[in-house]
Design a protein that fits this description.
By secondary structure, this protein is of the alpha/beta class. It has three domains: 44 residues, 434 Repressor (Amino-terminal Domain) (Orthogonal Bundle), CATH 1.10.260.40; 135 residues, 3-Layer(aba) Sandwich (Rossmann fold); 133 residues, Response regulator (Rossmann fold). It is built from twelve helices and twelve strands. Strands 2-1-3-4-5-11 form a six-stranded parallel β-sheet, with helices on both faces. Strand 3, helix 7 and strand 4 form a beta-alpha-beta unit. Helix 2 packs across helix 3, helix 6 runs parallel beside helix 7 and helix 10 crosses helix 11. The longest helix is centred in the first third of the chain and has 16 residues. The protein is elongated, with a radius of gyration of 23 Å.
Length: 341
């Protein structure tokens, strides 16, 4: 049998049809594993050239307890929740997180990744910058046996561990909510199309229109680079200045949705009677703005915790079986900005 590099206990488990925890215990001659199973595991490990993860061993000896976290902006409520979940899960296991921000810049992300690599972190958690479409700066970690888990913003064609939501389904539900409130001409605010998540959200919007027999109009597809509040005002002006303006708006984040509410109110547009609006993330601002903003709840804390658990599973720190791709649920939170009585 041909040997390959970087064989893990998960590779052995898949070939033998047993759990990763069984393989891990067999390699340690654990009494709970039968003799035949232990022999089969060790035989396959030898054939494939498996070697213990010495980085994980050093972790258990407290030689390294730092996890690197690459995120776009720490001051965004969703990202703050994500990092909070990571920190909670890491701290409970005796580890720490080191956080860096890319500010949506690919070049800054590369520099931050290099700094993490040189600081000898035990693992890396990444939510990509909007500019990032190439991942050479992440490859160095994989080649050195340092596990990487992507969270929320996932590379499109990379074979990687990931924690995410179903962006298409989430946007489908949000758009369908607007349709159920009587909207027939719905605009879509999207992020930069080079990011997979924003293309998936666009598809969910299109699918919802198709299901309910509503026409698709390219003029109602509006895009921003970073979906900042300032860009939200620009998008709102573009949408509401159309000859045939929308009666509903799905915004890919709450920042731009809030800006749209403020802009619409300044023009005397009634919400939700004239214009129903729903955002994405369910940030705290949703219950502060008047009228309160409907939004899609994205489980940031849970995503952060799951990313750390997945990282620990790769390192064999926890003897559990966590899937390589974890998809968490979302749901619509209807509020006054979209609910028409």
């Amino acid at each position: 049998m041909k040997k390959k590099s970087n064989v893990t206990i998960h590779d052995l488990a898949r070939q033998l049809g047993v759990s990763s925890s069984t393989v891990s215990r067999a390699l340690k001659n654990h009494a709970s594993i039968g003799e035949e199973t232990t022999k089969a595991v060790k035989r396959l490990a030898e054939e494939l050239g498996y070697r213990p993860n010495f980085l994980a061993v050093s972790l258990r000896k407290q030689h390294s307890t730092n996890i690197g976290v690459l995120v776009p902006h720490i001051n965004r409520p969703f990202i703050s929740s994500l990092v909070s979940g990571m920190e909670q899960a890491a701290r409970e296991a005796g580890y720490s997180v080191l956080i860096s921000q890319s500010y949506e810049s690919h070049d800054i992300e590369i520099g931050n990744a290099s700094a993490f690599f040189n600081s000898r972190i035990c693992g890396l958690l990444v939510s990509c910058a909007t500019e990032t479409t190439k991942y050479d700066h992440i490859q160095q970690f994989k080649e050195s046996g340092i596990p990487v888990v992507f969270v929320d913003r996932i590379p499109e064609k990379e074979d990687c561990y990931q924690v995410m939501i179903d962006n298409r389904e989430a946007t489908f539900k949000a758009t369908e909510h607007l349709i159920q409130q009587g909207c027939r001409r719905i605009a879509h605010y999207g992020g930069p199309p080079q990011q997979l998540m924003y293309r998936q959200r666009r598809q969910g919007y299109i699918d919802a229109l198709a299901k309910h027999g509503l026409p698709f109009d390219e003029n109602l597809l509006l895009t921003a680079n970073k979906l900042t509040p300032e860009e939200g005002f620009v998008l709102a002006e573009q949408a509401l200045s159309l000859a045939n303006p929308p009666d509903g708006i799905f915004a890919a984040n709450d920042n731009t949705a809030v800006s749209t509410i403020l802009y619409a109110k300044s023009k005397g547009i009634r919400i939700p009677q004239d214009l129903a609006i729903i955002g994405f993330n369910d940030d705290p601002v949703c219950t502060i703005i008047e009228p309160n903003l409907s939004s899609v709840h994205q489980p940031g804390v849970e995503m952060g915790k799951m990313a750390v658990k997945q990282l620990f599973n790769i390192l064999d720190i926890e003897i559990t079986d966590v899937p390589k791709i974890t998809i968490l649920d979302t749901y619509v939170v209807p509020r006054a900005s979209s609910v028409r009585s």
